[in-house]
Amino acid sequence: MAMMIPYGQRITPDDRTTTSRGLMRPRPGGRALRVAVATVLALWFALPLVPLLLWAVANRWSFPAPLPTAWGVDGLVTALEQGAAPAFGRSLLLGLAVAAIATPLGALAARALTRGIVPAPRLVSALLLAPLALPAFVAVMGLTVLLLRARVPATLAVLLLLVAAALPYTVYTMRVAYAAHDLAYEEEARTLGASRLAVLVRVHLPLVAPGLARAAFLAFLVGWSDYVVTVLVGGGSLVTLPLLVGSYAAGVGNEAIVAVLSLGAIVPPLVLLLALGRFGRRYPTARFTGPTPSRSPKGSP
Amino acid sequence: MSASLTLDSLVKVFDDPARPAVDGVSFAVAPGECLAILGPSGSGKSTVLRSIAGLDVPSAGRILVDGTDVAGLAPERRGMAMVFQRPLLFPHLSVLDNVAFAATVAGQPKREARADATQFLELVQLAGFGSRPVTALSGGQEQRVALARALAARPRVLLLDEPFSALDPQLRGDMHVLLAAIRAQLAPTVVMVTHDRDEAAVVADRVALLQRGRLLQHDTVERLYTRPDSLEVSRLMGGRNELPGTVIGGVHRSAAGGVPAPEGETWAEGSGVLVVRQEALQVAAAGASAPEGFVALAVVVADRRARGPRAELELAVITDDAPDARPDSLGSTRLLAEVPASRPLAVGDRATVLVPRSACTVVAG
Amino acid sequence: MLTTPLPGADARARQRASRERWVGLAMVAPALAVAGVVVVGGIGMSVVQSVGLLPLVGEARFTLDAYVANGDELLTGLALSLGIATASTLLSSVIGLAAAVIITQGRITGRLVAGLSAVTIPVPHLVGAAAVGLLVADSGLLPRWFGVEPGAWPDLVGGPWWVAVVLEYTWKESAFIALVVAGVLATRVARYDETAALLGASRARRLRHIVIPLATPAVIVSAIIVFVYTFGSYEVAWLLGRPYPEPLPVLAFRLFNSITLTSRPEAAAVAVITTVVSLLAVAVGMALLRRTPLWR
């Protein structure tokens, strides 16, 4: 559902704006209120991550103590002993595979939809966004019978279901990207003598690259974070990082391992997110000047 | 509802302190007057307007409305209203509620606010459009509603930021007529930013010409054309004739000959460039003598360019050094004149240019 | 003047249009096939199984037994799931909207809140659940910091009010709504805000008359997504909830993995009901969206 988030786009006012814009000038009463609300919100968003950070470096932390009583990396050692590394690798592969499939499929569909050459476009868009409205377990429970009878390997079945789950994100993201993408650039390139392939490689893809990166990131996230599909279809044969987190979190006394595994599950997407933030601002002028495109399919799940 | 507006050495620095976007701009606008801020893109004209509105905070300088500094006032308390190039009609409100917006947020009862708004819709000739959604309007209508909305706020100063530049020429002309009608009826103080010389000439009483953040000249439209303060002004206003030379004893002497200063004016002695509008030059038959107040120059037509109903003639001045010059070996002193396209002057024809002394001015080189 | 097109031009244009349609169809086909198989197949097969037409053993026979078998659990589960989803959606919308306003207004404060909420987004829900557990359980970080004995600490995890579950959903989804709405506010609302200020509207008035109305469609769309997700999500309720009563997804999960022969159709029945409610929620949300003046 993160597809509507403007990753790589500045949403906070920059220093130049705030110091020079009349509307942004601090006014005493409003400022106190704003700082208070912002502090509460910052705590709200940050607080749940604090126990993870502390437990990950706690060897022992008996109850009433507000901070760990013995620091250390026992949690990390145990997690590695319990197969955290291969699970991490499997999650990574799963996320990459989902991104590698769902991104081009979504981009193709989005391009056709934005160009208005698809028959029954409303129905097609609705179907492509439908996995969003369908709880994952419903799809799994319905399809397992079919997939089992067709002897589809569990890993492949997981992949199919996760690609479907990722499609709404990639389609939506690419529709936004293509709505802002001016076909005239490609036509201009054609008139300058570029072949279809050259236009695709040298003009079309570079121009929508930030959109593709956003779409791929979101698709990766679907594969990387999934729990339900892997557990139900894989039936325990495909042990990913979330599965390890789930099995340790359900037990007692595993706080340190859970914390280490959880951080391991948070860090890679965060790194990607930071990279995306830099990449997304590659064409700042081309994408954010002029009237905002109104053709984007905002909000039609 | 009209107030006077004074800018006192306004400075606005964005990123590079060495290159301020607005650099010490001062001017005054009388109540009911319409001032156009004219300049090429990047000249800082929009920043001046946004500073007046309070949307940008100046780095230095004062902005006075009716003699009172408005520095500490938030945009919403300055009593300005602004119309942007994009109409920015609130998409969640009807046409009428857009126009009634200022009254609504000022706490007026809805019925009164709407009744008031209706009058302003009539003023912009959109009576009966009130209940429509703003998406059902054409570009010109949208801008009319934006104007009505701004006027309904009873601004002390009405600010217009290139409000008509997105419209086609026909609609733009209609809007100029509408603005004139509004000025006749309500006499608001208006400051309008534009990059279009003709628009400034049609709409404004006076023009402030900006370049690279600096105010080059603040004057009436006519004087900007005929009495530019500098070569820069002359060029920005589209002046094409520049004759470098020297003023000696009140007469400007150049390769083209001597031109005395207009009646009742004096030119500073020393070197200077004589500028004269191409529209002011008259082209007569070869050998014609100069009437009172004109200077006659013998010329050869070196080039002729079509400009729709007009033609632009490039005229090579026949000087004493080259009295019988042929078109291919002409001297470098050229004048540009605009004549009706029907004048049958062709390249190579000889003619006489009559330079009206009253249209000439000398600026520093 | 020749105003009618040359003979044949019309036909050629039509031919080109139909070729374009084929190209378009070919471009959406792969995505459509995957989504179609999963959505139509998933729902269809769930329905088929739930009415007894695809038993693991024995002959197929149409029956609604699966819907009646766990009647009570189904009803309490439905009520519970609706309650959790409604509470999470309302709380995240309010917190998210407030955060969006802070993000787009403040300088340092805005960046802080934006950064922290962006960090929240890529956290998997299961990890979020584990983290919230470590924070608010009776041996968690908060009772430690406040010095409250486990006995005196309320039952947030596994308690009767499902507080930890709602907290986790609200935590992640409020960040989602905050960033979506902030994106809309920053790109589409900023200029209107200026215009309104010039027309004399104070900050509070602008918030009420401009910012909130213009943000409403984005809030509704993201609220629909949050509701449907929290309504049909399994792992958070499983980890932070109590064994009984079960929300619909947890109930379906238990039935699906149970060894009884009749439990598969029963799980499918729960899945069908969850889907129907989800689709109804989307329909209600879209109806709400259409009633906002911005919707065209």
Largest beta-sheet characterization of chain A: 2 strands, antiparallel
- Share of helix among residues of chain A? 55-70%
**CATH class label of the domain at 76-257 in chain C:** Mainly Alpha
Question: Would you tell me which CATH topology of the domain at 86-286 in chain A applies?
Answer: MetI-like fold
H/E series of chain A, N to C? Answer: HHHEEHHHHHHHHHHH
> What count of helical segments of chain C does DSSP give?
11
Main sheet makeup of chain C: none
* Number of β-strand runs of chain C: 0
Q: Which residues of chain C form runs of ≥5 with pLDDT under 50?
A: none
- Assign the structural class of chain A, choosing from mainly alpha, mainly beta, alpha/beta, alpha+beta, or little secondary structure: mainly alpha
- Please report the two chains with the greatest interface, counting residues with C-beta closer than 8 angstroms to the partner's C-beta: A-C, 104 and 113 residues
- CATH architecture field of the domain at 86-286 in chain A: Orthogonal Bundle
- What is the residue-mean pLDDT of chain A, rounded to a whole number? 84
